[in-house]
């Protein structure tokens, strides 16, 4: 499993004056990484759509509610458009059979990445969020080496192509 906080992602955050004064911004960073937009764009989008207050973090209930709405209506952030899929419970659980009984247990981060190696995801674990892009976990420094955290929710982002009309003359 690949863990990373790529230099490109670090530069996006380091160039932001807003990021330097922010705390509890893991969802903002996850959205910026998953949607491949700059930190400031993700910050203002999260503030507007998710009701995030500066330095307060994004509330879990607000993430769930807003992502369900975005699944219906799509997401437009910066100059990009995305379809959003709230991943269903079967994709977030592993099934085990022990002594003839079947159990469903929440996937770990490692198991989630192994089962969904392609795509762009925002993943929520207890009191934290991060991005997974094509099997690479993008998280805060120090958080990326915790692969046994249980995945509570995950959202797939698929960029929609923007078609421009061609003019002949």
* Strand neighbour order, sheet with most strands: 1-8-7-6-9-3-2
CATH architecture: Alpha-Beta Complex
How far is the first residue's CA from the last residue's CA?
Answer: 51 Å
Give the low-confidence spans: none
Overall domain count = 1
Helix fraction, binned, reads: 25-40%
The topology string of helices and strands comes to EHHHHHEEHEEHEEEE
Q: What is the level 1 CATH name? A: Alpha Beta
The secondary structure category is: alpha+beta
In short:
The strands form two sheets. This protein has a seven-stranded mixed sheet with strand order 1-8-7-6-9-3-2.
Tags for this model:
single chain, about 170 residues, alpha+beta, Cathepsin B, Chain A, about 35% helix, about 30% strand, globular
Structural summary, described in words:
The protein contains 7 helices and 9 strands; from the N terminus they run E-H-H-H-H-H-E-E-H-E-E-H-E-E-E-E. The strands form 2 sheets. The chain has a 7-stranded mixed β-sheet with strand order 1-8-7-6-9-3-2. The chain has a single domain (2-160), classed as Cathepsin B, Chain A (Alpha-Beta Complex), CATH 3.90.70. The chain is an alpha+beta fold. The radius of gyration is 17 Å and the shape is globular.
């Amino acid at each position: 499993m690949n863990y990373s906080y790529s230099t490109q992602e670090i530069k996006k955050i380091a160039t932001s004056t807003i990021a330097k004064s922010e705390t509890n911004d893991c969802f903002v960073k996850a959205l910026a990484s998953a949607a491949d937009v700059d930190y400031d764009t993700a910050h203002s989008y999260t503030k507007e759509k998710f009701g995030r207050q500066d330095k307060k973090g994004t509330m879990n209930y607000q993430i769930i509610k807003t992502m369900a709405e975005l699944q219906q209506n799509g997401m437009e952030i910066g100059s990009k458009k995305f379809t959003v899929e709230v991943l269903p419970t079967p994709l977030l659980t592993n099934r085990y059979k022990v002594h003839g009984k079947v159990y469903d247990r929440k996937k770990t981060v490692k198991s989630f990445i192994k089962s969904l190696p392609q795509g762009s995801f925002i993943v929520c674990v207890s009191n934290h969020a991060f991005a997974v892009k094509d099997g690479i976990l993008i998280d805060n420094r120090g958080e990326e080496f915790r692969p046994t955290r249980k995945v509570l929710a995950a959202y797939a982002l698929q960029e929609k192509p923007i078609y421009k009309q061609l003019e002949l003359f």
